[in-house]
């Protein structure tokens, strides 16, 4: 833990404003120039032997099948985009293989790139995206939309069966700030902008978006919208879906533009149909989002609670009766003891008893200080003990480093993975208990007792999310080991009537649980939407909705006789 007596300004270190877009070296996370080492205390705590024992194969040893899209498709894509934006290069294909869940990383470390796309294309405009979708639909080639590639739910691993090939559409050439409406405080940005670059462009105009997921160094706007991402400042700025005012969607059948005005009573809000659609309906090429002035004043501080229950009650009081800080999170006893909120001290000696809450405020000076004073009174009334800015600033400046620890842990033979859910306040404690028990039992049964840590990082008037981090020794088959734990936690979440995901999304990993959650009729309705927008079922097949039966042809390209259709679609 850091020195709580130092002022926030003195303690300020690298944060979101100091980060730059990095090209990650899959399967490892983050800026290759700044890899993490396991803090010695953490290594001692885990008791690992050889720190590189499970490092896995290097990229040249990864097996990759020859690309097999029909030559006519490749020719048409080159014609539409230019040869330099259509590639079957081995490293590009591997760099676009799956996402960043621990199973995704383990598979690549095992040399398995069987989900690699056949081609990677980079369209440079909305019209080019529409053209790519038309070509792929005409030839029944599966399309994987790809922005930052940080999916942790299997959102980038489509089903291949019945398709003539897989093309990943990487939208990162769509990287312009289209415009800022300073009066309405909205900005229109192309969907391929990485979060880091979007904030950089907005700051030059005196604004921020304020969306800081822990994957901030990798993820981008198209992915944020497609997964309904939640950032660490969600208490103050909202989830990404709450920031979106308008969207531009390219589908195999043409374009949909949504968001004529901020609110409307004209029918259902179709923006909500596109937000969270995970590429199953088409490709988002542009978003219009709410922005706010760059905050002049920021304070982050720590609070200690005797236990998780009293800390959760304090967060609930703020969420229900206010005032709301900008950042509000609470680690349970285990996560607090391990020091996961401050990766630099992970596993260190400086253990804070009880549960650590991080509370941050951003805005104008006077407003921040008024809100901070009022919120501090609520926290104190709820039994919180103020720890000063030290823990808050340590969290703020170290918050994007935590994911860097996963690679050295996996190298050392430690299994580490996260999962999340959300429920009502009245059920939160019970949900935490059953999910922890399910994960623990599943891993105990394999002879690998885990540490299960938990925190609340997104709060609402009616409820909150729970985010679990699981650490244990790897077995000889860590993929099967985690699959058993994940199934147990999914079952526990379903049995507790909680949501299968708060912000990671559905992908393929949560698909069955999601379908059980919404029921057959709702699923049928969503599949009907997909059949209308994507009659050939080429958009991210298998993700979110599972197999969708093809309807009778409703547009010219689907009538082509050379389009192979899978039995049952
Ligand atoms: C270390 C780490 C930390 C994370 N922390 C958070 C967090 O704090 N909060 C959070 O919400 N999530 C988090 N995630 C999950 C992930 O970062 C989010 O889901 C993020 O929104 C994905 O953005 P992306 O640009 O990487 O999308 P991708 O991974 O590229 O895509 C995600 C899904 O959306 C689809 N898609 C991508 N682009 C488009 C598009 N333009 N149009 C239509 N569909 C598209 C893809 O096909 C895929 O199914 C984390 C992941 C990692 C690895």
From TrEMBL:
Active-site feature positions: 467 (proton donor/acceptor)
GO biological process: lipid biosynthetic process
Site (Important for enzyme activity): 329
Keyword line: FAD, Flavoprotein
GO molecular-function terms, A-Z: alkylglycerone-phosphate synthase activity; FAD binding
Organism of provenance: Gordonia rhizosphera NBRC 16068
Keyword Flavoprotein on entry: yes
Cofactor(s) needed by this chain: FAD
Family indicated by similarity: Belongs to the FAD-binding oxidoreductase/transferase type 4 family.
Pfam family, one: FAD-oxidase_C
UniProt protein name: Putative flavoprotein
Stored InterPro entries: Alkyl-DHAP_Synthase (IPR025650), FAD-bd_oxidored_4_C (IPR004113), FAD-bd_PCMH (IPR016166), FAD-bd_PCMH-like_sf (IPR036318), FAD-bd_PCMH_sub2 (IPR016169), FAD-linked_Oxase-like_C (IPR016164), Oxid_FAD_bind_N (IPR006094), Vanillyl_alc_oxidase_C-sub2 (IPR016171)
Binding-site residues, substrate: 406
Domain of life: Bacteria
Residues reported in the UniProt entry to bind FAD: 145-151, 278-284
Domain FAD-binding PCMH-type: 113-294
Entry annotated with the keyword Flavoprotein: yes
């Amino acid at each position: 833990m850091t020195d709580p007596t130092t002022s926030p300004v003195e303690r300020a270190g690298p944060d979101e404003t100091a980060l730059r877009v990095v090209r990650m070296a899959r399967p490892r996370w983050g800026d290759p120039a700044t890899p993490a080492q396991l803090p010695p205390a953490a290594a001692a705590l885990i008791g690992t032997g050889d720190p590189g024992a499970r490092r896995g194969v290097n990229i040249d040893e990864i097996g990759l099948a020859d690309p097999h899209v029909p030559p006519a498709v490749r020719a048409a894509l080159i014609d539409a985009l230019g040869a330099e934006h259509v590639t079957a290069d081995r490293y590009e294909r591997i760099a676009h293989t799956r996402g960043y869940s621990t199973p995704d990383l383990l598979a690549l470390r095992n040399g398995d790139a069987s989900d690699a796309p056949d081609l990677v294309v980079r369209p440079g405009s909305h019209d080019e995206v529409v053209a790519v979708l038309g070509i792929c639909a005409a030839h029944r080639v599966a399309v994987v939309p790809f922005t930052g590639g940080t999916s942790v739910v299997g959102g980038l691993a489509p089903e291949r069966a019945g398709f003539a090939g897989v093309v990943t559409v990487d939208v990162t050439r769509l990287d312009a700030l289209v415009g800022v409406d300073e009066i309405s405080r909205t900005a229109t940005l192309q969907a391929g902008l990485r979060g880091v670059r979007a904030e950089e462009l907005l700051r030059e105009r005196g604004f921020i978006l304020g969306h800081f997921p822990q994957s901030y160094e990798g993820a981008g706007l198209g992915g944020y919208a497609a997964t309904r991402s939640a950032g660490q400042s969600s208490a103050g700025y909202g989830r990404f879906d709450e920031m979106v005012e308008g969207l531009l969607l390219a589908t195999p059948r043409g374009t949909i533009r949504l968001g004529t005005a901020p609110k409307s009573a004209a029918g259902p809000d179709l923006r909500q149909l596109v937000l969270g659609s995970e590429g199953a309906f088409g490709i988002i090429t542009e978003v219009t989002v709410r922005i706010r002035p760059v905050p002049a004043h920021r304070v982050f501080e720590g609070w200690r609670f005797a236990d998780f229950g009293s800390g959760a009650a304090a967060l609930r009081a703020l969420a229900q009766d206010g005032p709301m800080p900008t950042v509000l999170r609470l680690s349970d006893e285990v996560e607090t003891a391990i020091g996961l909120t401050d990766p630099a001290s992970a596993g260190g000696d400086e253990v804070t008893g009880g549960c650590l809450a991080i509370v941050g405020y951003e805005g104008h000076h006077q407003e921040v200080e008024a809100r901070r004073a009022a919120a501090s009174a609520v926290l104190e009334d709820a039994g919180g003990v103020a720890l000063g800015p030290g823990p808050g600033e340590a969290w703020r400046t170290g918050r994007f480093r935590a994911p860097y620890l996963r690679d050295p842990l996996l190298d050392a033979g430690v299994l580490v993975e996260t999962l999340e859910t959300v429920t009502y306040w009245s059920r939160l404690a019970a949900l935490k208990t059953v999910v922890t028990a399910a994960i623990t039992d599943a891993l105990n049964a394999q002879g690998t007792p885990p540490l299960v840590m938990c925190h609340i990082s997104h709060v609402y008037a009616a409820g909150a999310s729970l985010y679990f981090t699981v650490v244990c020794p790897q077995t000889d088959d860590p993929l099967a080991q985690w699959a058993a734990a994940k199934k147990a936690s999914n079952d526990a979440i379903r049995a507790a009537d909680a949501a299968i995901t708060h912000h990671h999304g559905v992908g393929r990993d949560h698909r069955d649980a999601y379908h059980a959650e919404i029921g057959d009729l709702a699923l049928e309705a969503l599949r009907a939407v997909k059949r209308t927008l994507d009659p050939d079922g080429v958009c991210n097949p298998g993700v979110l909705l599972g197999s969708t039966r093809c309807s009778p042809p409703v547009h010219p390209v689907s009538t082509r006789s050379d389009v192979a259709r899978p039995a049952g679609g």
